[in-house]
Design a protein that fits this description.
Blueprint lengths: L5 H5 L15 E4 L6 E6 L2 H4 L5 H10 L4 H7 L6 E7 L4 H16 L7 E5 L10 H4 L7 E6 L2 E7 L6 H13 L1
Parallel strand pairs: 3-4
Antiparallel strand pairs: 1-2, 2-4, 3-5, 5-6
Helix pairs in contact: 3-5, 4-7
């Protein structure tokens, strides 16, 4: 009699691959060949693990969204989805992606409506969708309402992510 574990049946591997979507949480060597970078569709779970957790967790923990802005922002997120292009190798992405997740968590925004695509150092992806979205810098956060782009935050959010989101969504509501 043979037995197989549930993890073997599901196709789960130690690298986090499920076997169902080989582009999710995929890693490749960087240009220098000395470390891995994320490429393709990336779930939060990738950032929760080393080596990415070394920058993700401290930045996420330190960031405190402005409560007053969050109260105004939260109702504007109705029918909104967000598409983010990031680089796990990019210092701006390492600063703003954890902050963006913190804002979404404070807003109780469904993570199923937040799609993160990790790019290579030359800002290319596995599928070429960065070309369709005219991505020239990372991170780029594209806010869409009912599937149509209403605005984007490119490379840095000044003064804060939540303020940029509020300004975009208030402007789109007019």
């Amino acid at each position: 009699m043979t037995s197989s574990s549930a993890t073997e049946q599901s196709g789960y591997s130690a690298s986090g691959q499920t076997g169902l979507d080989l582009t999710r949480n995929r890693e490749e060597k960087n240009k220098a060949g000395n470390e891995n970078i994320l490429v393709g569709t990336t779930g939060r779970e990738a950032y929760e693990n080393a080596p990415y957790s070394t920058w993700f967790h401290p930045t996420y923990q330190r960031y405190q969204p402005n409560q007053k802005i969050m109260e105004e922002l939260q109702p504007l997120l109705e029918n909104v989805t967000v598409k983010a292009y990031t680089g796990s190798w990019c210092l701006d992405s390492q600063r703003d992606l954890p902050r963006f997740y913190k804002v979404l968590d404070f807003a109780r925004f469904p993570h199923a409506k937040f799609n993160v695509i990790s790019l290579r150092e030359d800002k290319s992806s596995l599928t070429g969708e960065e070309k369709r979205d005219s991505i020239t810098a990372v991170p780029t956060f594209i806010l869409l309402r009912d599937g149509k782009e209403v605005g984007r935050i490119v490379e840095s959010a000044y003064p804060t992510i939540e303020m940029n989101m509020l300004t975009i969504l208030k402007g789109a509501a007019k």
